[in-house]
Amino acid sequence: MVNLGIDGLASGLDTTSIIANLMKIEARPQDLLKTQLTDTQAKAAAYRAVNTRLDAVRSAAEALTTAGLAAARSASSSSSTVTASASAAAATGATVRFDVVSLATAHTVVLGQDFTSTTAPLPSPSVPAFPIEVRSTDGTKVGRIALPANASLLDAVSAVNASSYGLNATIIQVEPGHYRLQVSAKETGAANAFTITQDDGSGSTQVALDDVAVVVQGGDAELDLGLGDGTRARSATNTFTDLVPGTSITVSKKESGVTVSVGTDNSAVTAKVKALVDAANGALSAIKVYSTSTAGTTKATLQGDSTLVRLSGELLSTISSAVGGGSASSIGLQLSKDGTISFDPAVFSATLAKDPATVARLVSGTAASTVGGVTTPAVTGIAGAFAALARAASDPSTGSLTMLASGRDTLADTLQDRIDALDIRLDARRAALTKQFTTLETALGTIKNQSAWLSSQIGQLYSPNKSS
């Protein structure tokens, strides 16, 4: 909207300033609404920031439930040449002993034809004459490789490597000026062994190439499990998956008397507990920032908010309360003077190694059980208590923080609607004031013109030079 300047056209008044000051008074209710909107939006953002921290607590706590704790597995090997890893599916205490009888190899052959150039056209029909056929060891045709006319040994290598038959070709210089063609399987294992036959061009006759030397026979890796009946575990690679359920074992050398055992990954459990403590301290820090003002600073966004105060207390009481007759301090968890949770990894690791059952009870809790007609109630561990507390606060539908943030969003929308409505009213009021002052200036201008005309007429009536 374009405002035309009408300052002092007749009255000499600063009309623009007068209208602006009047509009400031008119806009005071809207200014209060804008301040309220800013405060409401800040509170919604604060609730969401704390909610994010509480959700991190939930995630870290759920990783330490009974299932999460049980999933922490490690596999150890008695040999430096055998590596092993375990997944959550591996059973603690599982052990396997074996001898590494053989390693997986990739089938490799060298063609006997000697070449004096890698770039000159291949002699035909001398070996290796192309096209050739690749067959598996049982005679099944794998594929056919063809070359254009006047192809060189380098072209032959490119053709083999570009084929989809799982082969790698290499030129071997046996002595200066003398070359052989080597072909290897890309993958190890007996199933990937192959033979090469010469195609006579008709596609119906294959002639075995007698001077093809097998340099390495493709074979599987084998483990003798000592079963006494000759049974061996085999793998096309040097990795055995699920030899023991949930484990992966990789061998790199023939060796006897290797033992692989599955146990609890204590370092992983310790790291998960530390992650939970860090998440809880992060939530406590966020609650303090948004609910408590410090000296010399502006008032906290959620100063004294009862929900945040309650959450802070519940987070801390989770550590201070006894769990099934045990104390969190016995596994390195305790409250600090500054209102945070401290964690001693050394104490936790030592207790876990010495008494894993107690650690599991304190951290993950126990399920209800009935023995001899006597029911023992379930015990909620520290992780379970943290998880329940965090879910109650951050659940997407019913969480207390989620609902508080949503309520502020609704209020913000209402305030914005009222502000928008006042914009329309204020624009109309400004237009009315501008019109009123314009009318005033116009009227004053008319009066001034009339006054000047009357003065002129009167002056002419009393002029001494006027003829009678």
UniProtKB/TrEMBL annotation:
Q: Name one Pfam family in it.
A: FliD_N
Q: Which residues cross the membrane?
A: none
Domain Flagellar hook-associated protein 2 N-terminal, by residue range, is 11-107
Q: What is its main location?
A: secreted
Q: Name one GO biological process term.
A: cell adhesion
Q: Name one GO cellular component term.
A: extracellular region
Intracellular or extracellular location(s): Secreted; Bacterial flagellum
| Entry keyword Coiled coil | yes
Q: Which InterPro entries match?
A: FliD, FliD_C, FliD_N
* Residues annotated as domain Flagellar hook-associated protein 2 C-terminal: 229-448
Superkingdom as given in the UniProt entry? Bacteria
Q: State the UniProt keywords alphabetically.
A: Bacterial flagellum, Cell projection, Cilium, Coiled coil, Flagellum, Secreted
- The answer to whether UniProt assigns keyword Membrane to this entry is no
Known partners and oligomeric status: Homopentamer.
Function, in words? Required for morphogenesis and for the elongation of the flagellar filament by facilitating polymerization of the flagellin monomers at the tip of growing filament. Forms a capping structure, which prevents flagellin subunits (transported through the central channel of the flagellum) from leaking out without polymerization at the distal end.
Family, per entry? Belongs to the FliD family.
Q: What is this protein called?
A: Flagellar hook-associated protein 2
Question: Which species?
Answer: Klenkia marina
What is the taxonomic lineage of the source species? Bacteria, Bacillati, Actinomycetota, Actinomycetes, Geodermatophilales
